[in-house]
Every structure is written in structure tokens, then in C-alpha cells.
Amino acid sequence: MFALVDGNNFYVSCERVFRPSLNACPVVVLSNNDGCAIARSNEAKALGIKMGAPWFQIKHLAESEGLVALSANFALYGDLSDRMMSVAAGLGPRQEVYSIDESFIDLSGVRGNLVERSHKMRARILQWVGIPCGIGIGSTKTLAKLANHIAKTAERKPGSYREHLAQVCNLAALAPAELEAVMAATPVNEVWGVGRQISKQLNESGITNVLELTRLDAAMAKSRWSVMLERTVRELQGTPCIDLDQAPVPKQQIACTRSFGHPVTEFGDLNEAVTEFASRAAQKLRKQGSLAGQVLVFIRTSPFRRDTQYSGSTTVPLRRPSADTAVLVNAALAGLHAIYQTGFKYAKAGIMLLGLQPDKVQQIELDLPDDDEQEDRGRLMTTLDTLNQRYGRGTVLMASAGLAGDRRSWSMKQERRTPGYTTCWEDMPVVRA
Fold first, then answer.
1. What digits encode the pLDDT tens for the residues 235-292?
2. Using CA atoms, how far apart are residues 132 and 73, in angstroms rounded to an integer?
3. SS3 label, residue 19
4. Backbone phi, then psi, for 249, in 5-degree steps?
5. CA dist., res. 106 & res. 95, Å (int)
6. What is the pLDDT of residues 63-75, one digit of tens each?
7. pTM (two decimals)
8. Interacting residues of 123 by C-beta distance below 8 A, sequence separation 6+
9. How far apart are CA 256 and CA 270, in angstroms?
10. What DSSP designation does 406 have?
11. Cα dihedral across residues 292, 294, 295, 297: positive or negative
């Protein structure tokens, strides 16, 4: 048995923890540079706001409907996610953190009433962290994911099952007739692993809801569509095909890209941005215990502006795989020098680390003259990561990154960002008696 614990409208819920006045108000959280809605409260959804809706198209609702828009505060969301996951881990013996707001829990061997236990866990997460969540339980991960969707939408559906399935749904505990009714009322596109194109093809074949997909022959799903859909069908039929992944597979590439808050024309500003992006990627690289063999860097103008367009990229190979920030930054800046052209208004830049391999695999070669990469600076990099983790991102920077903070001309627009209530000492809420 598996359970999926999922925070409701997670980014919005995080903002409401420290601003209770936002409860019952339509709220959206905006993407980088305050571009589009990436999270919506139920009240915002009721206004017809779609996921990804551009801010300029919905900002009129701020006056007419009281819509509140906030800039993304990812440091806050990450911290509250860690707290939520640590509490949710008490639901069962094994946990897989699937995303910032979702985690699978293995319920094998857990005794007692699983629905009652899940309701108590929901209450604990709400009391200790402040995040409302839904919990779905099933004999496979796909069924648990489906149960979670049903738990979060049961109140809005007709039928006798809507009340006792709200927020916590255990598909394995339902009577056959009730299970069929729930599946028949759920569109096929709500199944984990069924994308837009597959959903469209299934609908054209007469398969519109989950019950019809569950009754599909698995071999036919494989021959007509794909192995992935076959696996999904078998999981819906109760045959586990996806195990719990407690140790995430190391990424095969690591990227750090950002759109600028304002057009950038000067090479010095691009130099700072690329240095910052390469430094962040290097920290992620060391965190997963890998080395990079190549560094890709790109810059481009905005296709949405009526300016002269330019897009350039290049890949710089390293003499030997490395996780040293200085080595990766130097390679990225060398690539930037090669692709930079004057006279353009750049809107975005980024770097990507390629050719990743475990840091336990070392490339050994004879010493070469003036080979600065020979020095082992693993302890220095560990110290760098420790300081930035303890005192905040940007505490120690490469000199070519310039000064941290909003004074950088390429910094993202975050005009509506709330304080770092749990990640910054200066922003910590103070209660006075």
C-alpha cells in the first residue's frame, strides 16, 4: 500500500501561513520576473484564472475581484516543504519525496485504520507546519496519485461518496460499486502518466474516464500506444510496476537559466549573471556527488520584443571532469566571450553542465605545465557550500559575480515578494505581548 501526501495549492498555502488575512481571498503566485501565474488558490481558480495565465491579462482582477498577486518566494517554499516532508514521514516506514509539495509513503506493515491515521497526519501537518494537504491511498503509486486527486476534488463532485472521501481517500477500502462510480466520474486525463496527447488519443478511441482505461487490455495499450501506458494500465488494475525511489537517480545534466528583470546590453552585466548561474549549478553538482565534463553557455534576446534578434550558445569541454566552482565559472566565461556580440538587448542567459559522472570516478593524467586544475580544492568547495547554506545564498561569491542583491541590473523582477519569514533573521516575525 502507498500513500501520496500532497500540499493543497502549495505556494499559496505557504504564503497564507504567515498572512492569515489572505485566507478566503483569491491569490496567485507569479513566476520569475512576475510573468505568469504558477500557483492559484481555490478562489482564484473560481475566477477562471488558468495555470500559466500571464499577469498582464489578469491584473485587472486585482481591482474588480480583489485578486492578490505575489512574487515567488522559493526559499520560503523550500523550507516549509522540508518541514512538511519531515512530519509526513511519520505516516509510514519509507518515504519518497516526489516534488516540493508531494511525497509517497510506503504503508507496508502499517496496522490499524489507514484513513483514520491519515486524517490524524493531515491535522498534525496543518497544526505543526500550517499547510493543508490531501492524502490518497492505493495499492500502487498510480492508484495513490489518483486517490489523492479524488480526495482533493470530492467535495466538488456529486454523489454519496463526496463527503467521506474529501481530503483523504483510500481506494482499497471502497466497495467495488463505489470504486467504479468514483473512477467513472474521473476524466482519463487526471491519471498520472497520461499526458495531453495520449489523453486526446484515448478520447478518440472512446476511453474518456479512468474506469474505461482500467478495463483496457494492457497488451493492447502497449501495442497501440506505449510501454509507459501499459505500465499505467497495470498499475490502475492493482499490479505494482513502480517501486518507491528513496534515493533519487543523479541528474544527467544540471542547468541554471534565468530571464533578466530588464534588458541587458553590457558585457559586464552578462559576466556577473553567467558567473552566478555557473556557481549555483556547481553547488547542485557537488550536492549530488558528480563531476561535469562540459559546460554549455547561452545568451539570447527576447522573441517577444521588436528588437533585433540574436541567440548564441557554445559548449566548452573541460580538460578533466570537475566540480570546482572556479573551473566551471572560467569555462562558462570563456564560452560567453566567444558568443557575445554588441548591439543587442539580451533577455535571458544560462549555463548547463553536461557529461556528468560520479565524483568517485577520477581521471588521472600526467602533470602538464601551468595546469591550475591539478590542485584538489574539494575542502575549499565544501567550506564555500557550508557558508552559503548556513548564512544564506550569496554570502561568499566568485569575484566576477559582482555584488549580491537588488543592485544588479540583471536581477529578476520580484516586486511583490513576501519576506523570508523562516529563512532570514531580519524577516523573522516578532510577536509582542
1. 999 998 888 775 566 788 899 988 887 888 989 889 999 999 999 999 999 988 999 9
2. 18
3. coil
4. -65, 135
5. 6
6. 999 999 999 998 8
7. 0.77
8. none
9. 14
10. T
11. negative
